[in-house]
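Chain A, query sequence.
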Amino acid sequence: MIYKVGLCQFNPSLLNKAENIKKMRELVDGLDADLIVFPELATSGYVFSCKEEILQVADDFQTSDTTAMFTELSSKNNTAYVIGFTEISEGKLYNSSMLINPDGTKHLYRKIHLFNEEKLWFEPGNLGFVVAKSKYDVLVGQMICFDWIFPESARTLMLKGAQIIAHPANLVLPWCQQAMLTRSLENRVFSVTCNRIGTEINKDKEFYFTGMSQVVTPQAELLFRLSEDEVSTKIVEIEIDKANEKNVTQYNHVIHDRRVEYYI
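Chain A, predicted structure.
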């Protein structure tokens, strides 16, 4: 089955949720796609200086205007979206992503491996790695940014059945884009890494984000990679059934050949 996947690389405005959501809608509204992935913390920006700032832009997953807008947009465009956002739940803050489907179903993931100063602001994710049915029952797994450096993240999503790994990111280190070729190859899944762009400054803190958002096949083929600084929504057709082919050779299978008794 041909499946149209894409991503929306842009430069979120720090602490300006209304502007970010408006920009996200403008960048994808009316496009013909089955799944589009946005960056990590796309609605809020990233370089925080205190929790009080984050509380200004945090969303309740169940009741927020962000969830409502993307639910309406998903139905209108018949497209599923994965959106990175700042979540508040029972007074706690999480670095989260949501999968919103055209049929109105929605699925939440909370980042498990927090990076750098994220540990000052957010609680570690407590929902496990989430794989859920999306449009046409394609199985989409979610992980966020620094989860990539732990091979167990993508492996767990694959073992739970993921055919596509949706990977919102705010990458500042130079290694992830290449590493995700290996994550796709070793798990025989598609990966959609959507990074943000730009330099963000808040008081004495400054981060440069590396862009280069990409889609990778289960054979580690790079279908496309954007530049470091372009604002772009790009969609590509994939053969989703290739994610069900787990043989490396006639005699080797990435699941059946695992020897877990020797893994620590």
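Helices lie at 17-28, 51-57, 65-77, 118-121, 151-159, 176-187. The first helix runs from residue 17 to 28.
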